[in-house]
Amino acid sequence: MAAPAPGEPGAAASAVLDELARNFTYGAQGAGNGSLSGAWYRRNQIHLFGVLLAILGNLVISISLNIQKYSHLRLAQQEHPRPYFRSVLWWGGVILMALGEMGNFVAYGVAPITLIAPLGCMSVTGSAITSVMFLRENLRASDLIGMTLALAGTYLLVNFAPNITQAISARTVQYYFVGWQFMIYMILEILVFCILLYFHKRKGMKHIVILLTLVALLASVTVISVKAVSGMITFSVTDKMQLTYPIFYIMCIIMIASCVFQVKLLNQATKLYNTATVVPVNHIFFTISAIIAGIIFYQEFLGAAFLTIFIYLFGCFLSFLGVVLVTRNREKEHLPQPYIDFGNVPGKQILDKIQPDSSGLSYGTLPDGSDSIKSPNEEKKGV
């Protein structure tokens, strides 16, 4: 069959399909495919660069969170604490977080979503190590086991994630944006989102699964738009300018709006539930939604073998299990003690333990010298 002439209606669609065919390149099946061999490295250099950026970015984010927490603790110990935004240490944490998020942003532009999204486990497991250095927390046996499982899962993810190399141009994003797969996916996602939002707002249901499912549905849109924006910027730098297309700014608006609402819902979850519960559930839900988005919108598992998909999913499972072990019961270690131990304070009456005042508004009160602990005989005389 002859190709359509440039003026015919099918010419534009044919050009887009030709561009997509050039953008997708899979490693040939054979020796080295699915193993960390020299041929695998040569085929996946750009992916490994994205993996390195994502891992470093997540580790920097974990350091920044602990630095900010450490700055809050230091300010709380001061007699006249300053606002946290005047602390140089706090701003250092903010700058590190911005650098880490920038690394993740660039990584999405050069590597598949299904490869980058699960690497968020590095932020959680890395936080367990940095909290030992900055916050003097204990490194538990479950932390070591969780880190080992997360590293094993990361190895499998990097090795068996789809080795598809795709140049994200504006025409590519437009083609996917109007594809029937994405249309059906978005209709179902909007329907589920509206149903959950109705139960959350109208019925007052604030279960953690409902809140974090809403966050995950927004996150799937976020990762699609982030990869589109980052990919078009990368394509503009390496090949041809893409920032003049309207789809670039549409994706920017979608990215910002979905991030804002995602953070708002996540803050509601952290107010209602402790961090040790929110972090692993949110990581699992976010990763699953991001993988589904990458498969449907960018077709990242197109042509992948069944064994490759199975080992990839097993790597995801190991990383999920590692995150759960690292965060398990961590919040209970920071619960307040049922008394205040003052020890021996020079010039003051020695009070070993002061129980909370259940009838007052304060946690506990110090009795003065005249109202010290009475003996049983004195209590009888008072009666």
UniProtKB/TrEMBL annotation:
Keyword Iron-sulfur among record annotations: no
Localization: Membrane
Coiled coil location: none
The organism's place on the tree of life at top rank: Eukaryota
TM spans (from-to): 46-67, 88-109, 115-135, 144-162, 182-199, 211-235, 247-266, 278-298, 304-326
GO molecular function, one term: magnesium ion transmembrane transporter activity
Entry keyword set: Membrane, Transmembrane, Transmembrane helix
One Pfam family this sequence matches: Mg_trans_NIPA
GO cellular component: membrane
Secretion signal, residue range per the UniProt entry: none
Principal place of residence: membrane
InterPro entries cross-referenced by the UniProt entry: EmrE-like (IPR037185), Mg_trans_NIPA (IPR008521)
Membrane topology: Multi-pass membrane protein
A single GO BP: magnesium ion transport
Annotated stretches, region: Disordered: 355-383
Protein family membership: Belongs to the NIPA family.
Name this polypeptide is given: NIPA like domain containing 2
Source organism per UniProt: Bos taurus (Bovine)
Gene (UniProt): NIPAL2
